[in-house]
From TrEMBL:
GO terms for molecular function: ATP binding; ATP hydrolysis activity. Residues 25-285 form the ATPase AAA-type core domain. Pfam families: AAA_21. Gene3D superfamilies: P-loop containing nucleotide triphosphate hydrolases. Keywords: ATP-binding, Nucleotide-binding. InterPro entries: ATPase_AAA_core, Bact_Antivir_Def_Nuclease, P-loop_NTPase. It comes from the Bacteria. This is ATP-binding protein.
């Protein structure tokens, strides 16, 4: 199941938006407070309750309860009141948002700004659930802290958004039975060659085993290796498969720039396997690694559809706007390139005294 369209009306920063996504890779950029992470969160909040983990006998009341709880856990509004996610206006207001999938199924959600724990859900042409999973990788890596996180989250009020809990539960899964698919073996080989080792889970702790050097606990590895280790284990456990949708919020966080290329190549391999990917970024290197794949066809022999989205504020109304292009260089409002050009101009001013 792939997300084809996201429709937002009066949801948080967004007035009206109807965004057509790629079934392969989507790169979302923009200045702070323009809604990049909001887009990931709202799609995840709708998709996760429908995933394989939540499958089973359900009713409309159960569906509404699951979506409410996921919106509350992911966005964590004050007092857990979902109405606080409605775009702020004077008086009463209401949000309506929906996702359309590639099989033309659609799920719509609506609620008012005074609502606390109820939403209206409408499902159109919804057939029995396909086998899929929604995976959200937040800015903080989790593989080095998985050991006790799930039990602590279950028993105490921990001020972490629910994506961290969901990811920790996925990392807590045992390895899947049976042989890997050819696609899985290809990406596993690619990542293991980059890392020069294999991932081992023992007593809910993760280690990188390097031939001739021994085992290294995750806390001793750099963030780049931890993130690649996380991807590797999610593949080995069967969570990241051809039916998965991956949301990755700023993969460059705490990352050595030298690790950006391997991380991007890992995502490219996942997309080839069938994973639909959504990435937010502030990073020039992340954006340009993907942009090269679109500008130079010889780097993208599989013809992956990569789309670049820019979020920005209108200079007059201050409203959040967006544009979608097939190349990053085609974006008119590219905050990353704008700052890159600005720092170049400042340096030239110093050199030439202008």
């Amino acid at each position: 199941m792939k997300i084809e369209t996201l429709i937002l009306n009066d949801f948080m920063l967004f007035d009206k938006a109807e965004i057509e996504w790629s079934k392969n890779i989507n790169i979302i950029c923009g200045e702070n407070s323009t809604g990049k992470t909001t887009l990931l969160k709202v799609m995840y909040s709708l998709l996760k309750p429908m995933s394989i983990e939540k499958r089973g006998v359900t009713t409309k009341d159960i569906e509404e309860k699951q979506v409410v709880e996921k919106l509350q856990g992911v966005f964590r509004p004050d007092g857990m009141k979902v109405g606080r996610l409605v775009r702020r206006k004077q008086g009463s207001s209401r949000t309506e948002f929906a996702m359309v999938f590639d099989n033309k199924q659609k799920i719509s959600v609506g609620f008012g700004n005074r609502q606390e724990n109820h939403v209206d859900i409408k499902s159109e042409q919804m057939s029995p659930f396909e086998k899929f999973d929604a995976i959200y990788i937040p800015t903080k890596e989790m593989i080095s802290t998985t050991e006790h996180f799930v039990s602590l989250y279950d028993e105490y009020h921990i001020d972490f958004e629910e994506m961290y809990y969901d990811l920790a539960k996925l990392l807590d899964r045992p390895l899947s039975k049976g042989p890997n698919t050819n696609e899985q073996n290809e990406i596993l080989k690619s990542i293991e060659e980059i890392m020069k080792g294999q991932i081992i889970q023992r007593d809910k702790k993760f280690y990188l085993k390097i031939k001739g050097e021994g085992e290294f606990e995750m806390g001793l590895l750099s963030d780049g290796y931890r993130k690649l280790s996380m991807i590797l284990y999610l593949i080995l456990s069967g969570s990241l498969n051809k039916n998965a949708v991956l949301f990755w919020d700023e993969p460059e966080t705490n990352m050595n720039p030298g690790m950006i290329h391997p991380i991007v190549q890992a995502m490219v391999q996942l997309a080839k396997m069938g994973v639909q990917i959504f990435v937010t970024t502030h990073d020039y290197f992340v954006q340009q690694e993907f942009n090269m794949l679109t500008v130079y066809p010889e780097l993208n022999l599989d013809g992956l559809d990569i789309r670049f989205m820019s979020l920005y504020r209108d200079s007059e109304s201050n409203a959040v706007m967006y544009e979608m292009k097939e190349t990053a260089s085609g974006l008119k409002n590219n905050a990353i390139m704008r700052e890159f050009d600005a720092i170049y101009d400042r340096e030239q001013g110093i050199i030439y005294g202008s």
